[in-house]
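Q: Convert this sequence to structure tokens.
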Amino acid sequence: MAVKDGITRRGDSWYVVLREPDPATGKTRMVWHSGFDSEDEAKAFRDKRRVKLRSGSAVRKDTLTVSDYLDLWLPAHAATKDLKPSSVDYYEDKINLYIKPRIGGTRLQLLTPSQVQGMYMDLLGDGLSRRTVEMTGTILRMTLKHAVIQYRFIETSPAENIPIPRPRKKEVLTWTTPEMRLILDAVSNDRYGALFYLQAMTGARGGELMGLRWDDVDLDEGIVWFHVNRVRLKSGYSEGTLKNDQGKRVTIDDATIALLKAHRRRQAADKLKSRKWLDDQYVFCNINGG
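A:
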């Protein structure tokens, strides 16, 4: 089968055969490009490919699958952006639960916009919330953008012009003052009543409360310093900084001070009863200090 000026034919299909550089060896090798229905179509591809090869902008042919690429992308992205462990876990969940099962086996360079659109529709059809689908789509779009710009695995992103499903806007409902009083009265004698009360009075996030230590609480001055975010991951607990690496000092009222003092007395009693107390100084912990 003769190859004439980079063009050849097999049966009803036309092929382009060009000598291209191999990044792994630094040498050139013959690369076949298939999928052309006519000689004119093959010639048009050949000419464009030669221009890109001369300019150094050509994307080399690769059999990398979407799953393989994502396994390469996530650790590098996490290291480059210095992502918190909780963020890495979040990305990992969306990739492993929703992206890989649907398009992971597809070769990255063969992934099409219709497959991306189909993935979004499948996720919605499976009953996932629009918020979950939105976040999954945002991650996929970012990874494919990096595949174009940073890694040069693909020339264009098949997700770029596919609309990502967005959540419908909902009215934000908050508790009224009487409702909040009822709730706080109900939990006032609970082991973690002080936690609920402090959260209601300061607006602190769950991770900020779980990372709070007694050294961060000045009950004489009525000041609490939130500067640690403690979250539970698959591998255990992890501590990090707050968003933008900034802490916040919050003034608390006399009622909150009284509840925290009572909470500390209860915790001291738990410490005396426990045979395996973990003295990590957390304000809110289990019966063994953890």
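The radius of gyration is 29 Å.
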